[in-house]
Amino acid sequence: MTDVLLAVGTQKGLFLGRRRGRDWQFTGPHFPMQAVYSVGIDTRGPRPRLLVGADSSHWGPSVFHSDDLGETWQEPARPAVRFPEDTGTSLERVWQLHPAGPAAPGVVYAGTQPGALFRSEDGGETFSLVRSLWEHPQRPQWEAGFGGQAVHTVVTHPADAEQVTVAVSTGGVYRSQDGGRSWSPSNQGVQATFLPPGRRFPEFGQCVHKIAQDAADPDRLYLQNHGGVYRSDDAGARWSDIGGNLPADFGFAVAAHKARGGVAYVFPLSADAHRMPPEYRCRVFRTEDAGGSWTPLSDGLPDAPSYGVVLRDAMCTDDAEPGGVYFGNRNGEVYASSDQGDSWQLAAAHLPDVLCVRAAEV
């Protein structure tokens, strides 16, 4: 059976799961009492490298890495991610650790709070600030979302290292077509529902929650917004609404199948003050036609009432066959599907709040 590693970052440490038959076995917590908001699994080299962004209330944020699937961890003597002194800024949190595609071996991006992008060329051991984004004239106007003001999503083109897209809360989508030397806002068609009528389609300032990249067409992107689910077919230049038959268009997470084009997943939440699953029903919605239609998936998920909220990085897919899907919620439950979401099982329960999940064949 395919050996899949499932990494679950929680409010109080990291848990690592391996599937044994139909059951999941977890180790942890690694980094106990540290909030783990970001995990990256880099499978480009001869052996997988795990990257973890952990927050210690005493020592502050740091990036750790492991080359033996979590048996041991290394932390650089100097902070891997830190703001240069001339910025007058200090790191609050690492929200994203993204190994770039095959076109950029060794490159890992880190998205941070406050909103900035860092780049590593040594597999995530040291990072440098991408000043072109930090010094963008629109950056001082980015606001803080409810979870803070951060670069929380990084998407890279698998065949073109020059194409990099980021999502900022709440600055919107920015993309670079020259390897990060320059950046442009890329939000045409994305609505900022919290603004007054007549001002809801600004150049920037949207509260984008997450972006996922299509498997068959890297220029096709899926976007879960603060109100609205969108698709772009031109690498983010223009966006169109695809949330038509969803029970709610609010949510935090979106993920795409790693091998099947046109297949993506969302976990809708009601847009009212509750921000819980519509009708209190735990359901993942899948599209198989790039957002033309959506199908609810609930076989094996808990019956109503269900109140678990899935955060922006708490849903993912793996690269195994036929395709695994995973999500965790703030109730400390993690659900896994090995058949593209057709059926689910409870992989872990009673964990601290789940902040992020990542999975890969190892």
From TrEMBL:
One GO biological process term: xyloglucan metabolic process
Domain of life: Bacteria
The name this protein goes by in its record: Exo-alpha-sialidase
SUPFAM superfamilies attached to this UniProt entry: Oligoxyloglucan reducing end-specific cellobiohydrolase
UniProt lineage: Bacteria, Bacillati, Actinomycetota, Actinomycetes, Kitasatosporales
Alphabetical list of InterPro entries matching this protein: WD40/YVTN_repeat-like_dom_sf, Xyloglucanase_GH74
